[in-house]
Amino acid sequence: MHSPSHAPSAPTLVERLARPLPPLPGLDDTLSHSIRGRSLWADARRRFLRNRAALASLVILTVIVLLCAFGALPSPHAFDEPDFDNMHVAPATDTAHWFGTDNLGRDLYVRTLLGGRISLMVGALGALVAVLIGTLYGATAGFLGGKTDSVMMRFLEILASFPVMFLVILLMTFFGRELWLIFLAIGAVSWLDMARIVRGQTLSLKRKEFVEAARVCGVSRWGIITRHIVPNVLGIVAVYATLLVPSMILFESFLSYLGLGVQEPMTSWGALLEQGAKSIEAAPWELGFPAAFLITTLFCFNFIGDGLRDALDPKDR
Amino acid sequence: MLKLILRRLLLEALPTLLVLVTVTFFLIRLAPGGPFSSEANMPPEVMAAIAAKYRLNQPAWQQYLGYLADLARGDFGPSFKYKDFTVNDLVWAAVPVSFRLGLMAFVVAVVVGIAAGVTAALRQNSWVDYSVMGIAMIGVVLPNFVLAPVLALVFAIGLKWLPAGGWEGGKLIYVVLPVAVLCQHYISVIARITRGSMIEVLGSPFIRTARAKGLPAGYILRRHALRPALLPVISYLGPAFVGIITGSVVVETFFGIPGIGQLFVNGALNRDYPMVLGLTILIGALTIFFNAVVHILYGFIDPRIRIH
């Protein structure tokens, strides 16, 4: 503000502030007219886009998602229709079985993409459930503190020492293998870490001045949690959500592999892998294609998660 | 120290176990259908006799208390599926198998994982670091149910070096593939954790001081750096142990190993309630106990924890 003026006749302060800044070389024109604060998100985006592995993963993942959504359209085969002339055949273009067929003669290309749809959906929805429960739980515990916090954390510890996988297997076998139950079961047991992380963040956030200001203004506790605490922990939540999706997909695959997940004729990558593993000697493509899709997807999510962490986590800067 | 151990075991581990028993018990009671509902055309007297034998004619709370009393004596009750066996017979036959498998995988994972992580950290950003971390990334992502058939195809069917399945009392050649599949993920995770915390510790002032004093590098690593660097690894050992037990479900199913993982899956598919309940409680107790041990161990290594 007190920088020496270069203008011949010294302009008033108001005039100086109103004048547009001289354009900076190499910067976009629209930016040069006013100094724009770089928000946390803009900053993070810039850093993320510089991370080549994460960016490439994002592109590949988009391709996989689009393939799973629309890739089955050009194929003449249906996912549950056996082709009796071509059972257990290797990938071929003349029969339009691009990935071959399985032991019942069903087209593996269509089934892999359909399985991907289910796997990705389970991953995304499971992560969403976990994120919602975990964030709210952690933010509430951390913000309220005191007795409430210790009771809530104790409850968390009890849940954390449950043999979760076994309880889920138990749930799936005794209560039927419905898709929504898989979402719910996977999501409901995976929010614990998220809650812990968010609680830690909240504890440090709630002593910040802007939260105190909100309290002085009479904002309700719930309002402070949802409007001030939660938005500020979103960065770290985004990172862990991205890393949660692959573990959700793995979890679902694990269930399907044991025959407890998605039921025939629907399928998921885990269910396809289970069949593929059985006939790996005779038909390695039955394992190969779903495994390639699954592993590529898991890789992408992990790289994107790492990229997001580098972009959003101030600790590693 | 003793106080911490007692508090951890009596005030935290035991109540948690009780909650687990209660939740699992009533969850199973809530489930529709029963183990005997599939046996068609049974005379009502026989049904009644079966119900009486397995305490199914009592109200739920009485069954629960009876079960707790049995449990306190270490009795898991009769198996519904294998009618001449108790759950205890079946479980204690399977436990040594799973324990042996899990312990080997655990030891391999910890030793190899820490060694790989320390190696990578000491040569940060070199080709050694990149290749170790690259392999670790693959290990984190690769599911064991993909690795198992691939390894079996290569080493059992292709090269014929190792058997593709079976246990045969735990002979070494039968153990190699299952252990490799089981520990693969944990080697990778432990290596990544070790590398991260080791790099952080090596950059801290007290290491610089030790270096400035002219201490030899190996001595600094062993006496100063390793202990704080292993703290995050130790807190991961609890989840790793649980994961290895859980992972043994897939490994045991694939390689046909008669351990608790296979027993559990079969029990669940057969609706063998006492079996599933007993195994859940057993594994839950192990999990809870192991978490407590890790916590106590943590307090032993990091004196700051003991104060709380």
Write up what this structure looks like.
The complex is a heterodimer of chains A (about 325) and B (about 300). Chain A has helices at about 15-20, 30, 40-50, 50-70, 110-145, 145-160, 165-175, 180-190, 190-205, 210-215, 220-255, 270-280, 285-310. By secondary structure, chain A is mostly helical. Chain A is flat and about 85 Å long. With about 300 residues, chain B is mostly helical. Chain B is flat, with a radius of gyration of 24 Å. The interface of A and B includes residues 167 and 171 of A.
Rg of chain B, Cα atoms, Å:
24 Å
Mean of residue pLDDT values of chain B:
81
Largest sheet of chain B: none
DSSP summary, beta strand count of chain A: 0
Biggest interface pair, residues each?
A-B, 38 and 45 residues
Give a brief outline of the structure.
The complex is a heterodimer of chains A (317) and B (308). Chain A is 67% helix and 0% strand.
List its salient traits.
heterodimer, A: 317 residues, mainly alpha, 13 helices, 0% strand, disordered N terminus, B: 12 helices, 78% helix
Write the layout of secondary structure elements.
The complex is a heterodimer of chains A (317) and B (308).
Chain A: H1 13-18, H2 29-32, H3 40-50, H4 52-70, H5 108-144, H6 146-160, H7 164-174, H8 179-189, H9 192-205, H10 209-216, H11 221-257, H12 269-278, H13 284-312
Helix pairs in contact in A: 3-13, 4-5, 4-13, 5-6, 5-8, 5-9, 5-11, 5-12, 5-13, 7-8, 9-11, 10-11, 11-12, 11-13, 12-13
Chain B: H1 2-30, H2 44-53, H3 60-72, H4 87-122, H5 127-141, H6 144-158, H7 172-202, H8 205-212, H9 217-255, H10 260-269, H11 273-301, H12 303-307
Helix pairs in contact in B: 1-11, 4-5, 4-7, 4-9, 5-7, 6-7, 6-9, 7-9, 8-9, 9-10, 9-11, 10-11
